[in-house]
Structure formats: structure tokens, C-alpha cells
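Dear colleague,

Thank you for sharing your sequence with our group. We've completed the structure prediction you requested, and as agreed, I am returning the results in plain text so they can be pasted directly into your records. Please verify that the sequence below matches your submission; if there's any discrepancy, let me know and we will rerun it promptly.
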Amino acid sequence: MKCVTIDPSFAAWRSEARALLMEGAQPANVQWRETDASATVFGSLYPPPPGSADPNAKKPVRVAREFLAMLETAACYRAPDRWPFLYKALWCWTQGDRAIASADDADGHRLRRMIESVEAEEREMRNKLRFRHRDSSLGPPEFISWFEPVHDLLEHAAMHFATRMGSATWMIATPHGAAFWDGALLRVDRTSEPEEKPMDFGDTAMSGEAVSGDAIEALWLAYYESTFAPAQANAAEMASHMPVRYWKSPPNARTDPALISRADPYSRRDRHPLNVPPEMEVTINTDLEPVKGTMLNEPPSLDACKRCALWRNATQAVPGTGPADARVMLVGEQPGDQEDREGKPFAGPAGKLLDEVLAEAALPRASLYLTNAVKHFKWEAHGEERAHLAPAQREREACRYWLEEELRRIAPKVVVALGATALKALTGHRTALSEYLGKTIEHKGHIIVPTYHPSYLMRLTDDKVRAEVFGTIVEALVFAQQIADGTATIRTPVVDRTR
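Please find the predicted C-alpha cells below.
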């Protein structure tokens, strides 16, 4: 009998199930156990880069995407034997028994009922979950909620709320754990023993609403504070001046400020990048006002560029550096204080972290072309210090002229987008970075590999989260180099045909 211990998550089960299938382990010979508690950071669970495994090892069994999606949904069904049952279903499928996917089969009927039960509760969660807007003086998360699902829905349903609520920070607590969203990273933590909600809502409270003073809420908020709050220190613009709107209440429910969401432009778009047609493009004058025509479309040099107002407060423009024939280009957000003074990209604290990542990935910095989406440092004074400010869309658009010039001149085989700003600048796609981690984007003849910006590591205080984010950046860089060398297979490409 083989004993397998896993975190209670589909990703952990799938990894072990894949290995068991390759060993030929029959379901009756496998005993499944769950660990007491676990945590998942979305975006860091994709397989190791191609080429890192033993080339002589057995290849994993291929499973139809539709059937794998069925297993993923069924994995949320809370039952003592869910993991062995799912492995039995997977085993039957790989042995050619397709009846397991049919409701006419006994096990197939159970699988279907599990899926239907999970999907029904997830719909209920989406319709009835209530977020309470916290006092902004308390710091993040901005919104908190309590929900008591029968099944393990957090991982399956949390990304829905991350997409809808955009940059607003939130926490969803349940008796079995909590989900946290810091505007870019989704983390799900589980507890081994169910927690009971210690306070009664009373007659005036709304079902599913988080209650102020809740002891468990306080514990989760403290955890959030230690894990994610530092990441918001430089995120003033991320949550600035966007109006709050209310989601529609469920049918036959009282009208209440339910399901609060930031009116985020990312939530009102399809999944493909959008762009202004060429005939409608504008340039930007020194007062940050759009002007029609071709004025300042082609500045004589980067140093002379005044397509936006950032040049006024910057020491100098910071061009990209690296070999003219570099096969891999790294694109960051903008220069920092030290880069602005030295005139070189990635010369400050984020650059030191990048060097650590490159050392782990065994990539020499001298072989890469390093640049930023925006070439001038945007800042505001905090005493004697110059504090970083995220560039606005019009500033990214104004600087796209220089980024596209670099892409034409260097013609890299792979472009690594370091952070959300770089991804937006490269594709025009305004979305959460976490949606594209582990994937590649084919855009205007370029292969783009998105990952976190090294500066994100400076804002993480939880060692486990920091290690996971660090590993994700390393994996992305290794994968990009393998694509450039022609030794990797592109993962789940997202083809952008809008520009």
C-alpha cells in the first residue's frame, strides 16, 4: 500500500496523481491523506520549465482538458474519500474507460452529482456573498466578508472576485480558511480545524456579511496585515479615486450595499487586448493633454523627448541597455530613484534583487537587454526622499514609441514582462497579472512571458510567499531563455490579434 499525503487542493492532488499514473499505481493500492493546513499562491503552481526533468523519464499520461476540468470542479466537493475517488476516476479514464464521464455509469453518476453540487454552491456564493467596506484608516484589506460553504470553494471561486473587484483589496473568510487578494496576488490559506463564527449576526445583519469585532475576523486580518499589507505601501495610485459601485442584489433579497466592487475598467472588458485604431491615436503634450495630429510623434532623441510631462521632474531619461542582438529582453515599469541618477536601468534595490534572480536562473545579465516601459522616473516628495509613483496610462502610451523602437531594433525572440505595468505597455491589455502567470502571449510577432517585477519581493514579509514569488520569477526567466534557445514548448499561448 502506497501512502500519499497532500495539501487539500486540486493542484497538489493532480501533481501526485500524475506521478502515480506514471508508476502504474492502481487505485486500490493507494491511500490518500490530507495535511493539516496549507496555503496556495495563485500563479506559482505551473509545472517546472521544459527541459528541467529527466529526459529519459516516462512522459505523463495525457488527459482531455474537458475531463480534467470536471475533476477540478469535483475536487471542491467535501467528502472523506474525494481524493481516492478522483484518482479512481482518473485511472479509469486513462485505461480507456470513458464511461466514467457518463451519468449512466455508477461512478460517473456520482462524479456528475459532485460537480452539480459544487457549481450550485458556487453560483450561490457569487450571488449572495456580502463584502463590508472597512474604514480606510484601518488599512488594507478594503473589503472583508464571511461565507460558510459546504464545499471547498475558495480556490475555485476566489479568482472570480479578484477579476470583478480589480485593484480593491479584500479578504473572504470561511470556517475552513480564507482567501486574500492584494490587487495582484491571490492567496488561499486553509485551517485544519473548522472555525465557528463566534458572533451572532442579529436580526439586522445580512446573510454572508462579515461582522465587526468577530474574533476569527481579527485573526485573519492580522494574518493579512503580516502577509500582504506591506505590498500596498507604494500602491497609492492602484486604489486612487476610482468610484465604488454596488453589485446587483440577488432576486427577492433586500436592497443593500452588497458585493461592493471597485468600478475597475479591467472588469468591463473581454479577455483580449484592446487598442485605439491607428487613425485615432494621439500624442501627449507637456501638460499631459492629448493633442491630435503628429506633433512630437518623432522626437530627435530620447533625451529630447517631451511627449509627456515626466521629463520635467526627472534627472534624465533612462534608455535600455544590453547587446544589440540579445535574444531575451526584460521590460520593467520605470526607472527608480537610483536609476534616474545613474541613467541605467535596474541599478537600484530592484536591480540587486534581479541579480539574485538571474543568478538562481543561471542567466548572465550581460546577455540580456534590460529596459523599462516608461523612461522617466515618476515621483513625489516624501520629506527629503523621492517616492515612486506608478505611471498613468497616458504616460505609458506616450512612452510606447520608445519601447516599440527598442523592440524593432533589438528584435528579441522573447520578451519578459516584469510586472503588470510592463504587461499593459507591451500588449495594451489591462488585466490582473496573475491571469497570465505561467502562460505566453503572442503579440505583434513577439512572444511575451509575464511574471512579477523583482521590486514586489521588497514588499513581502512572509518568507513562504516571498520564496514562492522568487521561484515564479526564476521559472519565468528560465522558461524565456529556453524558448529563445528553441528547447522549450510554448505553454498555453494567448494570441492577441487586436493590434
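Summary note from our side: Residues 42-53, 192-214, 229-296 have pLDDT under 50 and may be disordered.

Kind regards,
the structure core
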